[in-house]
């Protein structure tokens, strides 16, 4: 519950392969701020081990479409042309902020742009591995996707990297521990409004 302090909205985005999910998981465990991760909704089927309401809110195509029509998403999009939709539920974010939580949205650049347009004053952080060559190396090391899929991700990533100037903060993820510490330090500065300058 809130102790009277207002919540903050945090947007963490960047290209696929930048390590966003790993950094966010560590932040939730290690950063002393009242952080919470917004759970996205999706029309894709659950993967083994995934639970509704913990990993995602799993919706049918018709449920998702109806919620879109009612304006219940802060942002939503079809990802990589696979026919699956993903979206951030406005009510979940609003509830967290009312409770004084610092709500993290781990979303792509397009979703971040939609959120920035809202009057929510998010703290925006662009996370990347240091350049396109490093990103390609990381994607190939995964060994989980076809060459065509890798090429598609790299094409999208190159476009996303051009969005960097729109963000408040740039963080290069070379090593997980120091990156988590850097992001946490950035966020903690926002408890002191006078020291929140763009880096």
User: How many helices in DSSP terms?
Assistant: 7
CATH superfamily: P-loop containing nucleotide triphosphate hydrolases
Q: Kindly provide the radius of gyration, computed on alpha-carbon positions and rounded to a whole number of angstroms.
A: 17 Å
Q: Which residues sit in consecutive blocks of at least 5 with pLDDT less than 50?
A: none
Compute the number of strand runs.
9
Order of helices and strands: EHEEEHEEHEHEHHEH
Query: How many distinct domains?
Result: 1
Residue-averaged pLDDT, rounded? 90
CATH topology: Rossmann fold
CATH-derived architecture: 3-Layer(aba) Sandwich
- Report the helical percentage: 25-40%
Secondary-structure-based class equals alpha/beta
Sheet having the most strands? 5 strands, parallel
CATH top level class name: Alpha Beta
Widest β-sheet, arrangement of strands: 2-7-1-8-9
Our measurement of the CA-to-CA distance between the termini, rounded to an integer number of angstroms, reads 32 Å
* Shape summary: globular
> How large is the share of residues in beta strands?
15-25%
């Amino acid at each position: 519950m809130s102790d009277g302090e207002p919540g903050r909205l945090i947007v963490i985005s960047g290209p696929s392969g930048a390590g966003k999910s790993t950094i966010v998981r560590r932040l939730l465990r290690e950063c002393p701020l009242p952080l919470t991760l917004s759970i996205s909704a999706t029309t894709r089927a659950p993967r083994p081990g995934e639970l509704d309401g913990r990993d995602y809110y799993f919706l049918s195509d018709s449920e998702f479409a109806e919620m879109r029509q009612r304006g219940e998403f802060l942002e939503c999009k079809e990802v990589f042309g696979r026919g699956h939709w993903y979206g951030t539920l406005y009510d979940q974010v609003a509830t967290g902020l009312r409770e004084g939580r610092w709500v993290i949205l781990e979303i792509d650049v397009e979703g971040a742009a939609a959120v920035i347009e809202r009057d929510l004053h998010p703290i925006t952080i662009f996370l990347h591995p240091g350049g396109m060559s490093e990103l390609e190396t990381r994607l190939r090391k995964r060994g989980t996707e076809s060459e065509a899929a890798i090429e598609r991700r790299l094409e999208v990533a190159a476009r996303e990297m051009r969005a960097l100037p729109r963000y408040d903060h740039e963080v290069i993820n070379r090593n997980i521990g120091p990156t988590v510490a850097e992001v946490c330090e950035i966020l903690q500065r926002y408890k002191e409004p006078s020291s929140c300058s763009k880096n």
